[in-house]
Amino acid sequence: MTTLLPVAWRLARAGGTYRLAAQVGVNVLGGLLLALSLAVPQAVLSDGASTDELLTLVALLTIVLLPLAILLVASGRLSGATRDRRLAALRVLGLGPWRTRAVGATEAGLLAGAGALAGVGLAAAVAPLVDLAVHAAPERADWFVAPLRVTVAGSTAVVVGLVLLAGLASIAGTWRLTGNPLAQRATSTRRTPAPWGLAPFGAGAAIVAWGVLGLPGTIRMLYGGEVVLGVARVADIDESPIPVLVVLGAGLVLLTVGVVTLPGVLTAWVAGCLARSRSTAAVLAGRGVQTEPASVPRIVAGVAVVVLLATCAAGYLGALTGDATYQTERAQVAGGPVAVTVMPPDLPDTGGPAATAQPTVADLDSLRAVPEVLAALPDLIMARGPDGQRMSGLGWQPFVGTCAELRAVMVVDGCRDDTAARIVGRASDPPPTETIELATFDAAYDLVRTPVRLDGEPIRADDAATAARWGHPGVEVWTESLIPYGYFVPVSLPGVDTIPMAYASVVIEGGPATWQRVREGITARGFDMGEIDRDTFDEVELLRAQLLVGVAGIVGVAGLGIVITAIDRVRARRRTLARLVALGVPARTLLAAQAWQVLLPLAIAVLLAGGVGLAVVGAVAHSADLGVEVVSAGMPLLLAVVGIVVVLVPLLTLPAATTRLTPELLREE
Q1: Band of the pLDDT at 596, cuts 50, 70, 90?
Q2: Which residues cross the membrane (predicted)?
Q3: 459-461 and 412-413 strand pairing
Q4: What's the whole-model pTM score?
Q5: Sequence-distant (≥ 6) Cβ neighbours of residue 278 within 8 angstroms
Q6: N- or C-end of the chain: fewer Cβ atoms within 10 A?
Q7: What separation in angstroms does the CA of 251 have from each of 67, 371, 494?
């Protein structure tokens, strides 16, 4: 031990200031984020939280922190080839295999421990500030049920964990140095990645497939009451002994590790073909990959993680924004029409009509005078069509008003204020009938039925033009949910003009600011206006913001890893490039060889991670009955993230294909 620490410290100093600072800095970041992450469950979960909730949160945090884990491992292997040769030299000088591994592990643990201690100290200072920032906004006040605090036990676990991770990564990376140290000491030795990199990918694919198939082999109950043991759709499962989300999260973690390790193995296999080709640039690229197979794959590991997680995030974003209720409320918030109940102040908002004053036709005229009110309509308890079929909620509700009001809400043709008629030309037309029945309660709770004859020619609606008017062209579901009218009944018809109204409805436009102005105008006229439901919109927008912040964090951490490892590779490759320049290899050949070495693993990583991500999202969407269109809804996010990381790698690595020749670069260590 007396000689282990000095030798390990000399090994760390020999790596240079850049490597030492990068390793310590990355572990500071790791200590900060991991300490805060360990404090999150206690802050966000109540005392009565279930095991499923805890496991789901842990799976989510693990997925978010995966780029950090990749960054920590990659930083420990900075200048890995040079460091391995130095450790191999110790073996040549007579140091035993385990002593050599101990030197490397101690060196990595010293740097990781120093950074981790600084990181957890910083986390302890930052946690109260994060807690204050969360509680500063009322809409975020319920995020934390307890203060966010970093504990001593959590800090100790983080420091020990980072030291062990660095030590194990060092041992794994230098394991083969003990076999033939003279060969490992040489820069021209061919090094082939171990095929164990296939294992995480295969295990992750198997676990995800098991989850998508509904956990076959376990006993589950479906919503229909059926108990199943075999394959089932996730959307049909009511009760399961194992949380499906936890299973999918565990599979995604293993798949992420797989798309990190697999590109290196595949690139090494392809490099053999390049080394046997007739192109000088391809041969140089193939030999470069064979001698340093982990150099570029270490850079593109961050790209693979980002592409896979961004693809899954895009699918989740598509599932959130594809919800019909969210789309309806988003259209209303954006200024589309919304119907809201209006009542005298002495009537209850729920529980049925009360035997007190009710809105009258004169009251409707007063409501129409409020700016931004498109229509004021009797709020019917029910409306029945052919064979007593109830029309509420079918998109066939009667519009009891005037043609001017109908035209303010919909784009229609053929409306007349003296005859009732069907509204046709929509996604689903109401059935033809001669009579419909309007029903409501009077002040004495008696049901009043008012038959209405449909004498007029059908009114033709244009859904596409209606949606375009409100800024949502071509969305049929949107028009069906926001404008669910299938019949037009003039309010001036005999019998209709005296129909009792428990409540009234006004159709308004303009978004939340307009809603408030309308509320003030309606209150000034002696009425109360009901609340407009936007809970789903607010919840999805919150989840969307959190998702985008998470993606930004993932891209930031992965981008930092790409930059650090790319700079390290440029520094490590300078001597190799200098020798090739001294031998007279043209600059364009060096650039082409560098392009092969960089773009080949980059393409493999992007195609592999993107393909796996799309397959997982599509399979989960199909099993959960979400529809594969969830992928297209999040495509802008996916393309933006992939574009950033894919462009970053060539920008950082290809310019280093040429180097200025100096005597120092020709010196062999």
Answers
A1: confident
A2: 20-42, 54-76, 108-130, 150-175, 196-222, 242-275, 296-319, 547-567, 598-621, 633-657
A3: antiparallel
A4: 0.72
A5: none
A6: N
A7: 16, 55, 67
